Amino acid sequence: MNFELSDEARMLQDGLRRYLADAYARPLREPSDTVWAGLAEMGVIGALFPEEAGGFGGTGWDIALVFEELGRVGSPEPLLDTGVLSGGLVAAAGGDVEAVIAGGTRLAFAHGEPGGRYDPTRVDTRVEDGRLTGRKAVVAHATSADELLVSAREGEALTLWRVDPDAVEMHDYPMTGGGFAADIVLNDTPGERLGEGDATEAIVQAQARATLALCAEALGLMERIRALTTDYLKTRKQFGRPIGTFQVLQHRMADLLIEIEQARSAVVNLAGNVDGPDRDRHVAATKNLIGEVARLVAEEAIQMHGGIGMTDEYELSHLVRRLTMVDHRFGDTLYHLERFIRLAVA
Amino acid sequence: MNFELSDEARMLQDGLRRYLADAYARPLREPSDTVWAGLAEMGVIGALFPEEAGGFGGTGWDIALVFEELGRVGSPEPLLDTGVLSGGLVAAAGGDVEAVIAGGTRLAFAHGEPGGRYDPTRVDTRVEDGRLTGRKAVVAHATSADELLVSAREGEALTLWRVDPDAVEMHDYPMTGGGFAADIVLNDTPGERLGEGDATEAIVQAQARATLALCAEALGLMERIRALTTDYLKTRKQFGRPIGTFQVLQHRMADLLIEIEQARSAVVNLAGNVDGPDRDRHVAATKNLIGEVARLVAEEAIQMHGGIGMTDEYELSHLVRRLTMVDHRFGDTLYHLERFIRLAVA
Amino acid sequence: MNLDYTDDQKAFRQEVREFLAAELPARLSDKVRAGQALSKADHEEWHAILNARGWLAGNWPKEFGGTGWDAVERHIFEEETTAAHAPRIVPFGLHMLGPVLQKFGSKAQQDHWLPRILSGEDWWCQGYSEPGAGSDLASLKCEAVRDEDHYVVNGQKTWTTLGQHANMIFCLVRTSKEGKPQEGISFLLIDMESPGVEVRPITLLDGGVEVNEVWFSDVRVPAENLVGDENKGWTYAKYLLTHERTNIAGVGFANAGLQSLKRIARAERDGDRALIENPHFAARIARVEIDLMAMATTNLRVVSAAAAGQAPGPESSMLKLKGTVIRQEINALTKAAVGPWAIPFQSEALEGANEPSAGPDYAMPATRTYLNNRKLSIYGGSNEVQRSIIAKTMLEL
Amino acid sequence: MNLDYTDDQKAFRQEVREFLAAELPARLSDKVRAGQALSKADHEEWHAILNARGWLAGNWPKEFGGTGWDAVERHIFEEETTAAHAPRIVPFGLHMLGPVLQKFGSKAQQDHWLPRILSGEDWWCQGYSEPGAGSDLASLKCEAVRDEDHYVVNGQKTWTTLGQHANMIFCLVRTSKEGKPQEGISFLLIDMESPGVEVRPITLLDGGVEVNEVWFSDVRVPAENLVGDENKGWTYAKYLLTHERTNIAGVGFANAGLQSLKRIARAERDGDRALIENPHFAARIARVEIDLMAMATTNLRVVSAAAAGQAPGPESSMLKLKGTVIRQEINALTKAAVGPWAIPFQSEALEGANEPSAGPDYAMPATRTYLNNRKLSIYGGSNEVQRSIIAKTMLEL
């Protein structure tokens, strides 16, 4: 049992933190090609892949470390979608992710469908003779992707296909947390098969790792939001004294701190179990807890800031918007509560 | 729309409040024959029955008024069981409740059975040729009752029977809120039929009114607990000043006050609807809300009192024990949450 | 005690319903139902319709052109208009300035300004908050110095809602620095078209623009625009805050929001069932509905007492607090209900522009409303301030 | 990073399990599982068994007869004994006084008192709290005046847990009224059999007697029973409070309580299903289990840091707070789970006497445990005090 970072991990963390502090010295709320190239160059994308795929990491601990740091600066880069979700699927199927690791190729996973909500198996897109027909909804970072990975049914089997983004109809719009998503229409669109057999378990596994990434990002966001709020409580004066001297706000901050510590432990639990036999129970527990704590932290941070916390211009707004969106990918608190009950309580 | 008490109601309230202030000047934690006689004499039992039954009230408003006052002093008298629940059933069946109103006869309703939890229709006690066989559990105030009312199945029908307490086997024990309850064994025990036809609706209606009584009592308990706690916050000093000057406790008291106000409105809602077509929805809503608020008030009151709040000797202990038991009769918060969903949400 | 409305009240409710059925333009109620922002012209159109019926000033006495309704009638009107998705009445002239002028203004001020509020000739906004003086209004700094028959105003106001539409602003300004902070504040009416007034929009968390900063640089204001006495503005402001707190519970908004939430939860699929059949989601809806049922009755109790002539006391703090908690919970549940459709951030789509998400229409405003309504617990006296008021007045702590 | 125990740690866990299987009397574990009160003899029996194995003083260094375990080993021992429903170790001598004597006591005091703790010859209790000095310990009044080679003690202590069994009490007493309130406090060991000591039981909310008032009237205490320096008792008390806070999270108790709750929820019928199949009840269990999974890891992080030599800091306040919230929620759910069987108030039944309720055995302690464990958030520094500590030390507010 060891909760210390290894020397390599510590180096990655230090380097990444320094790089991000610099890159986000002026806050960036939209993805940036420069930052993407910078992340690739310092090996951050490679840290998400195991050696056999050409990376130098790929464990749950690596994912947690990288995404907590990205969360701290509110980075909107498509690293989760490209590196963990789509890249993870390609690597698991034995595909080549060299270009992904090098930062040359960005991927997006077109999986969820209108009305499918959070069910990872609800796919109605059909494939016949290597051509796909169907609709995909809210595909994150679809417009900036060099290649789409699309899930579709071939008979009963859930299968994965590489599709050229230029070959589909895209309706794009901004996302609440930055970047663009798109609704996608496939109409007899050609695709190239990725992997063999049924991909359900591969998708569930990739989503479990992406959930870890998202939860770790949420942890970073919460840490940064907490720091901003603490600073604000020390500087802002009302009724003649810093509002941080009011006992009510002190106790509410103490409660936030405790809950963020819970969130950290939940991320640790998932990081240590994401590739193990107890994966599903930990995915459910961690995503549920993170969703609960994220709502509390976002709402309390705005409330304690008062008016300034409601403005777009202030740094908090972007962080809070990203944090509030965590509950809307890969299943929300209630979805995972029900899963946890099935797996652990009932 | 009118939230003012009528002159008669105001008189009853004033008189009852004065009487109880006197009767409970030294707190009584167990039922008292003197208090019972006093209540009967001033017409409090009669206020629970309509004129056609020999009373002079019997509306939801009357029940709410009486039980809020009883709650304020933590009275453990069996008025709910005798007056509202059993007496209500007898009166509804056209039986004679004169002796009940006069205070001469105390009744208990032997209805719930081991394993039946809160389901009012789960009755396995059988009746054949006017003789009852079965088990009843946690029959409140059974040992002090002059007559038992027992529910039993005759064929499919749910029926009611008057039974002599001396004719049954009783295992009695104290209740957490004061008074005694008993588990009862009926073994070919003779009974006298009360009313005709299936009694299910009559039982549900009597329980609805008893639920109102219990919720109003909880409201009175909470008012008294709040007053005790406020007083304590003003007198008790720590770190050199009254603990009521600490902002954290002020805000928590404000939240309690708001929730108690919610509880009052919930009781009003049920009082106005307990005999109407929207009864069941209001029973579910009010009992659920009271259960939630009662837990909050009990736990916060103990916490704000600190050590003294943990002692049996101090007045709070009895009030808190009674309040905690409200959730264990006629369905708890979760039972009524599910009922409310069925009736109002789904 | 009884919970029923009188026959007269029922008849009045029927009259309001018929009026709304006949006169509320579907174009406006559709926008409100869909959570779309209303334009200045939309607001003006609805105000004019109400004014034509004599129902614009529900809280003014008849002598000033108001309806003379009691609190229960106002409540019924509020319930029915909210349920019909009518635009809310822009409150600054009608609910805020109007009562202050009626109570503290001169006859000349009443005669001049009140009819212009009803006719729509003036659009008022409120100049109370300043950076550094939000919940702590008494510490405000914006200054007015008397210069013969004018005041010269310098300083800044913020959180000025819909200031971009307004031609007039009523302000709290500092006219003296002596005594306690609450003393030395005056209540001044300022023409926004005066030289030296600048309005800068503030973009909010939800991407919308509804509040503004207003800057004053040597703005000359005729002394006749002072309301009441110099340095007594704090008294008028407190009076106004009390008036602002009628309907502070927002029961109508909460009910409309709850109905909309249930519609969405019935429409959304969750696996093989409707979302509303998910017991955990249903439990969250049930809890907030149960709370709302109780709060609606608390509100009626206060309304009923007000109609009987009792002044609203600290109960309004309780209603404000519980009301915001309930509305914010409904907003959070609505955001949860739309699932992944909460992710699109479509300001243009809400205005009816290009490339909306393929998601259902009801999903579009969910995230923005959730974010925007975080303000409910901040403005008009934050919930923290309300708790302190309750502790002081009701608990005497 | 990794979450696995080392092979040595796994072997140790196995060793503890085997010991418990062989040595823990079923009579004792049955009582603990059923929530029954343990007698003095029960406690002494279990202490003697542990002492025979050399495992009684898990937090003492070997030189004083302790095990010398590190924090992880202590954690494993705690997990296994709790899971096996072993009696908890009575902490006053072993976990509280022991470390203070080892750190601040004289050699003579160590040689005399420590072996008697291990052998069970002395049963210690704690004299800290006073009426009016609970969370605010520094304001204590119980007074010790030096009279040649004795102190003369007058005053009152309260909340003295299991004082009815004790022959010795360690007290904080006021030896000076000068300076700050924390100054002028001394740490004194008092023989309970001295003339002038009176113990009065306090019945608690749950009907049980586990705490006492202790009164001192001109009690003469040999000066050699002063630990450390006069007027420095506050330092020793703070040290002790830190030590008391190891295992403050109560993960073992919470786990045992959760397992018991699930057993009850599987056994209880709720309509046509087991209670655990009621989705709303299951949700409440799930939420507390999820919280507990996270807290257990927070606890391990602190344990692991402690094993690596880091002193426990304000994290112990976080663990105390979250730990009590979780345990109290489990207690509340257990009370809810037993339904109407929560109503019987059976102090005698718990001791095995006559006329128990016909309800299932598991129902009997539910209400009493719920009521009794309200103390968790009050004693050992109330949760309010913990929040203030966290705000001060970790947020620097």
UniProtKB/TrEMBL annotation, chains A, B:
Entry's Pfam families? Acyl-CoA_dh_1, Acyl-CoA_dh_N
Enzyme nomenclature, EC number:
1.3.1.95
Q: Where is the Acyl-CoA dehydrogenase/oxidase C-terminal domain?
A: 212-324
Which CDD domains does this entry report, sorted A to Z?
ACAD
**InterPro entries per record:** Acyl-CoA_Oxase/DH_mid-dom_sf, AcylCo_DH-like_C, AcylCo_DH/oxidase_C, AcylCoA_DH/ox_N, AcylCoA_DH/ox_N_sf, AcylCoA_DH/oxidase_NM_dom_sf
**Gene Ontology terms for molecular function:** acryloyl-CoA reductase (NADH) activity; acyl-CoA dehydrogenase activity; flavin adenine dinucleotide binding
Q: What is this protein called?
A: AcrC_1 protein
The record lists the organism as: Jannaschia aquimarina
Automatic annotation (TrEMBL), chains C, D:
Q: Keywords in alphabetical order, please.
A: FAD, Flavoprotein, Oxidoreductase
Q: Name one GO molecular function term.
A: acryloyl-CoA reductase (NADH) activity
Q: Name one GO cellular component term.
A: plasma membrane
Q: Where is the Acyl-CoA dehydrogenase/oxidase C-terminal domain?
A: 231-395
Q: Which cofactor does it need?
A: FAD
Which part of the chain is the Acyl-CoA oxidase/dehydrogenase middle domain? 125-217
* Boundaries of every Acyl-CoA dehydrogenase/oxidase N-terminal domain copy: 6-121
Q: SUPFAM superfamilies in the record, alphabetically?
A: Acyl-CoA dehydrogenase C-terminal domain-like, Acyl-CoA dehydrogenase NM domain-like
Indicate whether Endoplasmic reticulum appears among the record's keywords: no
Q: What is its EC number?
A: 1.3.1.95
- The kind of enzyme this is, by top-level EC class, is oxidoreductase
Q: Record's family?
A: Belongs to the acyl-CoA dehydrogenase family.
Protein known as: AcrC_2 protein
Q: Which organism is it from?
A: Jannaschia aquimarina
